[in-house]
């Protein structure tokens, strides 16, 4: 059984920063992809950033240059450093682990005040 535990969400003013963490526990294949998605009210869930177990990264155009995804393979933890936050970054952020199956965290709220 794989579990993902997210932390680090909260309320921040526009222009500020937050760092999200997602720790995975359980039986985890060493080759995997960890990613952050977000879902704003009334919108579909969208991919924000992803990182492979080898360290390759990808980002949504809307966050390039502002967000950085990283991971600690020894701790099965993925991070999302979010800088220069904008009101439109407000959403519930979800962590996803992809191996043979997909696993999702419970989500953490990020609210950016304008």
Brief digest:
The protein is mainly beta. The protein has no helices and 11 strands.
Structure overview:
The protein is an all-beta fold and 114 residues long. The chain has strands at residues 3-7, 10-13, 18-25, 33-39, 46-52, 57-59, 67-72, 77-82, 91-98, 102-104, 108-113. Strands 2, 4, 5, 6, 9, 10 and 11 form a seven-stranded mixed sheet that branches. The mean pLDDT is 95.
Salient structural properties:
globular, 114 residues, 0% helix, 55% strand, mainly beta
The ordered string of helix (H) and strand (E) elements is EEEEEEEEEEE
**Helix content percent band:** under 10%
Structural class: mainly beta
Sum up the overall morphology in one term: globular
Bin the strand percentage. Answer: over 45%
Total of DSSP H or I helical runs spanning 4+ residues: 0
Count the strands?
A: 11
Q: CA-to-CA gap between the ends?
A: 40 Å
Low-pLDDT regions: none
Average pLDDT score: 95
Task: Tell me the Rg in angstroms.
Answer: 13 Å
| Largest sheet, strands/sense/barrel | 7 strands, mixed
């Amino acid at each position: 059984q794989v579990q993902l535990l997210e932390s680090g969400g909260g309320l921040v003013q526009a222009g500020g920063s937050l760092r999200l963490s997602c720790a995975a526990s359980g039986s985890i294949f060493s080759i995997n992809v960890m990613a952050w998605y977000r879902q704003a009210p009334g919108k579909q869930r969208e991919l924000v950033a992803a990182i492979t177990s080898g360290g390759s990264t990808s980002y949504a155009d809307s966050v390039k240059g502002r967000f950085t995804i990283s991971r600690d393979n020894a701790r099965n933890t993925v991070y999302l450093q979010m800088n220069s936050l904008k009101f439109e970054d407000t959403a519930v952020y979800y962590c996803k682990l992809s191996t043979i199956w997909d696993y999702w965290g419970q989500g953490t709220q990020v609210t950016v005040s304008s």
